Amino acid sequence: MDAIEERKVYRLVLTGGPCGGKTTGQSRLCTFFENLGWKVFRVPETATILLSGGIKFADLVAEEDRSKKKAHEPGTSAGTATVSASSTSDATKPTVFKDGVPEHSVIDIDKITTCPRCMAAAVGKVGDVYKFQENLLRTMIQIENTYFELGRTSNKNCLIICDRGFMDASAYISKEKWDRMMRSNNWNPVELRDNRYNQIIHMVSAANGAEQFYATEEHSCRSEGVTLARELDYKAASAWIGHPYFDVIDNSTDFENKVNRMIECVCQKLGIDIGDRLSITSRKVKFLVSGPMSPDTSFPAFQDFEVVHHYLQCAGPRVQARLRKRGQNGRWSYIHTIRRPQQHGQSIEVRTQLSHRDYLNMLTQQDDAHFTIYKKRRCFLVNNQYFQMDIYKEPSHPRCKGLILLETYTSLTGDKLKAILPKFLNIVKEVTGQPDYSMFNLSLREDWNNTKKFCYSLHDQDDAEVKTNGHSQKMINGKA
Fold first, then answer.
1. Backbone angles phi, psi at 354, to 5 degrees
2. What is the pLDDT of residues 53-108, one digit of tens each?
3. How many CA atoms lie within 13 A of 240 on its CB side?
4. Assigned architecture for domain 9-53+124-270
5. Long-range contacts of 274-280 (CB under 8 A, 24+ apart)
6. How confident is the model over 341-366, as pLDDT tens digits?
7. Any alpha helices (H) in 72-106, and if so which ranges?
8. pTM higher than 0.85, yes or no?
9. What is the phi-psi region of residue 469: left when phi exceeds 0, alpha when psi lies from -120 to 50, beta otherwise?
10. Fewer Cβ within 10 Å of end Cβ, the chain: N or C?
């Protein structure tokens, strides 16, 4: 079998209830697989495209209810039919069209299948919700097919992440209308559910099990309260029951581990061995590497990326926002990251994929107190352990000259941790959690001894300070 036949195209649906972590999860999943050398396509959520254009789903439902009410009022017209006062008094007398043709099916509009006249008459009664969902699905299928075709022509293994999929629409209309929509468009729901996508992952809404983290203010198309969010979450999950590879990622762990469990589900289905990187007990560890760099021939198979970081102005002193541009061979992806102080014992970090235009617009908010950070990032696997090595490049502050940092996620400690580290690198020491090796601090223009911007932690801080490494260090939770 040649190399082309061995390439994989994996079609994944990432779905879930409101505030379930889809946006951040999609970004993390994209970065993870790009680091493995995969091509990643992200199919945008069709509903968000339409709703962000001014459509309000609540208005569509209200319009449908008004249409139904009007259709049952004596002496009013609905569609092309006219109902007289005398005819409404006789339940057995059929409503007639203006041209005298019996309106034989409009009384039970959910059973209309083939009669063009009845379909036309039913449009007003079915309401805007039905037509919206029907057009949404037609649009979704065409957009997805475009990405699927691109995946088939890729010269790399390709992961296609669909932000929601075909069956999600069934959660928003009645079963009768859904069945009629399938018949009128010759759609096979079993084929479109079970065979169109390789795997479905449902990210459970924070409204179900992590209520303290549920929020709507940062999503332009989200306005659901907790109760409605739970209902939508259940409906969205139920829509995919029956798919052969359907995984539900609940809120039984903190958010970081929730995202890791999601990535691990995908890797397991694909048969990718990533060691204990995504273990629930794993943590990020960081090491200082001494140059000069080992020759490329000493590395196993690797992927190199150019990475550019810009820190942005923030409203609060303990909030960090940055843009990341990451790419190979002139092809770039863009991420916006916001880090906040701990809430309820969890560090909050939200990552959002950006378009090139949005990236350029947000660059106008760059914080002049920080240098732009330029790095080469090398990603590779050693001993079934996934590593990222950042090699800092100029222009930058002199403190970054020659700096090389190695990162990985693992649950190992002590000698077991040392045993998995790359032997071909000159690892000086572990620097996990040390603020001197934080990218935020490394990018500061001012000298650390003369700045108030140096960040020791985003955690809650006490007022006590101690002197460390020539500059003041806040006491964190009673510990320096």
1. -120, 155
2. 776 655 665 555 555 555 444 444 333 333 333 333 343 344 343 333 333 333 33
3. 29
4. 3-Layer(aba) Sandwich (3.40)
5. 274/381, 274/384, 274/386, 275/383, 275/384, 275/385, 275/386, 275/410, 275/420, 276/385, 276/410, 276/411, 276/412, 277/385, 277/386, 277/408, 277/409, 277/410, 278/409, 279/410, 279/411, 280/253
6. 655 455 566 777 788 899 999 999 99
7. 85-88
8. no
9. left
10. N
Amino acid at 477: N
Dist. CA 371–CA 6, nearest whole Å: 44
257 touches 276 (CB < 8 A): no
Tens of pLDDT along 266-294? 988 888 877 777 676 667 899 999 988 88
Kindly tell me the burial class for residue 283, based on how many C-beta atoms sit within 10 Å of its own C-beta (0-12, 13-18, 19 or more): middle
In angstroms, how far apart are the furthest CA atoms of the chain?
A: 95
CA distance 175 to 239: 11
Q: 């990236």: which residue's tokens?
A: 359
Dihedral of CA atoms 178, 180, 186, 188 in degrees, nearest 10, equals 40
Domain with CATH 3.40.50.300 in the chain: 9-53+124-270
Q: CA-CA distance, 121 to 80, in Å (whole number)? A: 6
Strand 404-410 and strand 385-393: the pairing is antiparallel
Spatial separation of the C-alpha atoms in residues 413 and 238, rounded to whole Å: 41
Helix axes 128-152, 57-71, angle to 10 degrees: 140
Domain 283-443 in CATH 2.40.320.10? The answer is: yes
Question: CB of 454 within 8 A of CB of 448?
Answer: yes
DSSP codes joined into one string, 64-77:
HHHHHHHHTSTT-E
Beta-strand ranges (E) seen in 95-241 are 96-97, 158-163, 199-203
In sequence order, the 6+-apart residues with CB closer than 8 A to the CB of 418 are: none
Residue 124, token pair as written in the block? 């007003």
Q: Residue 45 gets which letter from DSSP?
A: P
Number of C-beta neighbours around residue 266 at 10 A: 22
Q: Count of CB atoms within 10 A of residue 403's CB?
A: 18
Sequential DSSP letters for 266-287: HHHHHT---TTTT-TT-EEEEE
CATH 2.40.320.10-classified regions of the chain: 283-443
